[in-house]
Write a structure and sequence with these properties.
By secondary structure, the protein is an alpha/beta fold. It is built from four helices and ten strands, in the order ββββββββββαααα. The chain folds into two domains: 130 residues, Pectate Lyase C-like (3 Solenoid); 73 residues, no CATH class. Strands 5-7-9-10 form a four-stranded parallel β-sheet, with no helix packed on it. Helix 3 crosses helix 4. The longest helix is centred in the C-terminal third of the chain and has 26 residues.
C-alpha cells in the first residue's frame, strides 16, 4: 500500500521516506509500521487517529502539529523539534524523545510514564492527566456553537469532542492566546472567511492572528 493522494493518508510498511515535506498534510487514520521519516517536515500536520508504530522521525519538525487519538508505540523522535504541538490521548508506549526540543507542547491524557528520554518537569511542556477545567461565558459558548454553520469548521472537528460537547483544550489554548473579547471577534470573522478544508487548530490560530 502507498499514499492516497486525495486525502494525504499514508499506508506504508518498512519503507524509507527521508527528507520529505509533508507540511499542512492531513494524515488522519494513516497506518505506518517500521518506516523511516528522518529529517522530514511535519509542521501543521494532523495525525488524528493515525498509527505510526516503530517509525523513525530523527531530526524532524513538528510545529503546530496535532496528534489526537494517535498510536506512536515504539517510534523514535530523536533530535526532533516540537513547537506548539498537541498530544491528545496518544499511545506513547516506548516512544523515544532523546534530545528532542520542546517549546509550548501539551500532553493531554497521554501516559508519559511509558515514554523514554523525556522530562515531565520540563517547563516547555504541560501535562494534563484529564481535560482541564475552563470557564466559558455564555457569549463565547454561543459563538462556538454557531461555528457549526460553517461546514468546513464543522467537519474539522476542532471545537467539539466525540460526545458533541465543546473541546475544552481548544478553548483553553485559544483563550490563553487571545482573551475572550478578541477570540469572540476572531471566531465570528473566520466563520465567514473559511471556505476550504482544514485539519488543525493551528490553522484557526493563524487566521485569528491576522485579523486586525
Amino acid at each position: 500500500m502507498g499514499r492516497n493522494q486525495s486525502t494525504g493518508t499514508f499506508n506504508y510498511n518498512n519503507i524509507q521516506k527521508k527528507d520529505k515535506n509533508f507540511m499542512y498534510d492531513n494524515l488522519k487514520r494513516s497506518n505506518c509500521y517500521n518506516c523511516d521519516f528522518d529529517t522530514c517536515n511535519f509542521d501543521f500536520v494532523s495525525f488524528r487517529g493515525a498509527h505510526f508504530k516503530k517509525c523513525s522521525f530523527y531530526n524532524s519538525s513538528f510545529k503546530g502539529t496535532e496528534f489526537v487519538g494517535a498510536n506512536l508505540k515504539g517510534s523514535k523522535f530523536k533530535k526532533s523539534i516540537f513547537e506548539n504541538t498537541i498530544f491528545d490521548s496518544v499511545n506513547l508506549d516506548g516512544v523515544d524523545f532523546r534530545d528532542a526540543e520542546f517549546t509550548n507542547v501539551i500532553f493531554l491524557e497521554s501516559d508519559l510514564s511509558k515514554a523514554i528520554n523525556i522530562d515531565i518537569n520540563d517547563p516547555s511542556i504541560r501535562v494534563f492527566d484529564e481535560v482541564p477545567e475552563v470557564e466559558i461565558s455564555e457569549a463565547l459558548k454561543s459563538t462556538v456553537d454557531s461555528l457549526n454553520e460553517n461546514e468546513y469548521i464543522k467537519n474539522a472537528r476542532i471545537f467539539d469532542t466525540k460526545d458533541g460537547s465543546i473541546n475544552l483544550l481548544t478553548m483553553m489554548i485559544l483563550l490563553e492566546l487571545f482573551g475572550e473579547e478578541r477570540l469572540i471577534r476572531g471566531l465570528n470573522t473566520i466563520k465567514e472567511e473559511i471556505k476550504r478544508d482544514f485539519h488543525t487548530l493551528s490553522y484557526v490560530i493563524r487566521l485569528i492572528e491576522k485579523i486586525k
